[in-house]
Design goal:
The protein has 180 residues and is α+β, with helices and mostly antiparallel strands. It has five helices and nine strands. It has two domains: 91 residues, Alpha-Beta Plaits, CATH 3.30.70; 84 residues, Poly(A) polymerase predicted RNA binding domain (Alpha-Beta Plaits, 2-Layer Sandwich), CATH 3.30.70.
Length: 180
């Protein structure tokens, strides 16, 4: 039986592949099936929009085990879905998401020279707490996006809005709610 998991998450192909590796190991260890494909939908600007993982299951009952694993791993945003063959899709997922788009071209040169984006991301993650994390990023022609997911939108937004007001790299940034 073939199933297609569609993740309502902005994941770079490498980040999707990392998730595939975890799933593939689980499928192999439990003799449930195998991953037979995957892909990332990309906007015309090159930004990831969603991604799919296709799995051939050894038995119909194995789908429940996969959904349970993904839910336990806390790695699926609301609005994600799975489809069995040509049947209609079924929604699953628990995470909400928000992106911060940092302006990469219009800030003063000294802002880019004197601030490290990795330090900013570390600060954000420390302030967001353990139930929230960054899942991926995108480096566009004029801005860089970082995609954060967690259980509740308010804590994600609060930290990012505070950074917009206080951190030089967040000047002229924008926030986009990805999943509510």
């Amino acid at each position: 039986m073939n199933i297609v998991l569609t993740f309502n998450m902005r994941l770079q192909p490498q980040d999707r592949h990392d998730l595939e590796d975890v799933l593939d190991q689980f499928l192999e260890d439990e003799n449930l099936g195998e991953i037979v494909g995957g892909g990332t939908s990309i906007s015309k600007e090159g930004e990831p929009e969603s991604c799919d993982i296709s799995i051939d299951l050894n038995h119909d009952d194995n789908l429940e085990k996969i959904i349970h694993l993904l839910t336990q791993m806390n790695v699926v945003a609301k609005g994600s879905s799975y489809r069995i063959g040509e049947e209609s899709s079924n929604s699953f997922g628990t995470l909400v998401g928000v992106a911060i788009y940092l302006n990469g071209t219009d800030l003063a040169d000294e802002v880019y020279q004197e601030n490290d984006v990795n330090d900013l991301i570390s600060e954000i993650l420390d302030e967001m707490g353990e139930n929230n994390r960054i899942f991926s990023w995108w480096d566009g022609p004029r801005e860089t996006a970082f995609y954060f997911y967690g259980q509740e939108l308010a804590p994600l937004m609060a930290v990012l809005q505070e950074k917009q007001q206080t951190h030089p790299l967040c000047e002229k940034s924008r926030l986009v709610v990805l999943v509510e």
